[in-house]
Design brief:
It is a multi-pass membrane protein. By secondary structure, the protein is an all-alpha fold. Helix content is 75%, strand content 0%. α2 runs antiparallel to α10, α4 runs parallel beside α8 and α7 packs antiparallel against α8. 44% of the residues are buried.
């Protein structure tokens, strides 16, 4: 490696000399991939649980929005609004904790290892689901959702999540809210078992100084007959180089040179959330009921529409680019939300959201920040996303009772704002290196 290059350049260019080798698909690699998918599915089930379970929970526990209008049991109404989705008690606390975790360079995970960390987080998930399954009152439910929020704290938002909450919408038609919670806990138990049979992360081992175990971990993933020496050396070099970089403080994120990246990341998340994303997914049952539709049939149709559109987003993102996909789907969601406001044509909004608005901002977020602020920038953007999610989900039922059509006109306004925001500020990142993206950000700034 060229010693004359700056350390940050080494991080970006260190793998350019990679030798062509035949890739191996091993059982351990498949198991590790399956375990990662189970973690995302578990998170998706938690996100999608609220809407199909809402009516059953409120009936069994004697809760209704009528209580709030009559001025009775106001505290209970507030709590039921909180547990209907990952709101303040879960997301704000979870992401504050996640912010602390990221800005301290993952000391918790590094001290005990990635596998143990995942196991502990999944244990929180399982206890949370059990608390819901055996809930006797509203506080059991609230505690369960809090634990699930902590367990979900480090799961990434990936394609699988969209599919998982679509599955929840569909299965919610056939099971009670307690049985639905049992179904939601299944991937958590599978994930816990899988963790015992997968190796520790090679990069995690290199970070804590166990360089001699990096090759052993890679052999488990690649196969015994695969030459892992070059890959192991690259991981060690990358880790050593990253540790030589000046420690980045969280407040440095607000330096003027990072302003554009920060505005794009935070702005996208806020506009997408205020475009109705989590409010609609959390209270789909109430929306369908108010529209005079069969809740079961409408939820099934919603799941059937979301699955193919979410699948198509993977191909569209790399074929037509992030900017066009986000602008087209935001315009479509704006049109759909406007139609919902006029006549509850809900499926149009759902289709366009699944096709691009749901996942594309997260992909862009992972690409726009320079490598030295990626962790802190991602943390702040995620915190903005979940805090705005809390605002939308917490206030949705109250605003919906005030004007069922008006709330969707508000969502349409924010979806239209996304189109203008992307056209003016968001760079295209498809097929570009990190250096090229950063250069374009500087030119735009």
């Amino acid at each position: 490696m060229d010693k004359s290059k700056p350390e940050s350049s080494k991080l970006l260019c260190g793998s350019s000399s990679k030798v062509e080798t035949r890739s191996h698909i091993t059982f351990v690699l498949l198991l590790s991939t399956f375990a990662a998918a189970c973690g995302s599915i578990a998170y998706g089930f938690a996100v999608g649980y609220s809407s199909p379970a809402e009516a059953g929970i409120m009936d069994d526990l004697g809760l209704s929005l009528a209580n709030q209008r009559e001025g009775k049991e106001v505290i209970r109404v507030v709590v039921i609004n909180e547990i209907n989705h990952d709101v303040f008690s879960i997301q704000f606390i979870t992401d504050t904790w996640r912010s602390h975790w990221c800005t301290n360079h993952g000391r918790v995970a590094e001290s005990v290892g990635r596998r143990v960390t995942m196991w502990l987080l999944e244990l929180c998930f399982i206890i949370g689901w059990l608390s819901i399954i055996f809930a006797k009152n509203i506080w059991w439910l609230n505690a369960g959702r809090l634990l699930m929020g902590i367990g979900a704290g480090l799961h990434c938002y990936v394609f699988t999540v969209s599919c998982a909450f679509s599955v929840m919408f569909f299965t919610g038609n056939f099971f009670t809210w307690r049985k639905l919670a049992v179904i939601g806990s299944i991937p958590c138990f599978i994930h816990v078992v899988c963790i015992f049979f997968i190796p520790e992360s090679p990069r995690s081992l290199a970070k804590v100084g166990n360089g001699n175990l990096v090759e052993a971990s890679l052999r488990c993933l690649r196969g015994d007959d695969y030459d892992v020496s070059q890959e192991a050396d690259e991981i060690k070099d990358y880790t050593e180089t990253s540790q030589k970089l000046t420690e980045f403080r969280f407040l440095d994120l607000f330096n003027l040179k990072y302003a554009h990246s920060l505005i794009v990341g935070v702005g996208l998340m806020l506009l997408v959330q205020f475009g109705g994303t989590d409010g609609i997914s959390s209270f789909a049952g109430s929306i369908f009921k108010a529209a005079g539709c069969s809740t079961g049939f409408a939820s099934t149709m919603m799941a059937m529409i979301q699955l193919p559109f979410a699948s198509s987003s993977i191909l569209l993102m790399d074929n037509i680019g992030r900017r066009p996909l986000l602008m087209v789907t935001a315009a479509g969601a704006c049109f759909g939300s406007f139609l919902v406001g006029l006549g509850f044509l809900f499926q149009v909004y759902s289709a366009f959201f699944s096709a691009g608005m749901g996942g594309t901002p997260w992909v862009i977020m992972s690409e726009i920040f320079p490598i030295n602020i990626k962790g802190q920038g991602g943390t702040l953007v995620t915190l903005a996303n979940w805090f705005s999610s809390w605002i939308v989900t917490y206030s949705f039922n109250f605003v919906f009772q005030w004007s069922s059509a008006g709330v969707f006109f508000v969502f349409a306004f924010f979806c239209a704002s996304i189109v203008l925001f992307v056209a003016k500020l968001v760079p295209e990142t498809k097929g570009r290196t990190l250096e090229e993206i950063q250069a374009s950000m500087i030119l735009l700034q």
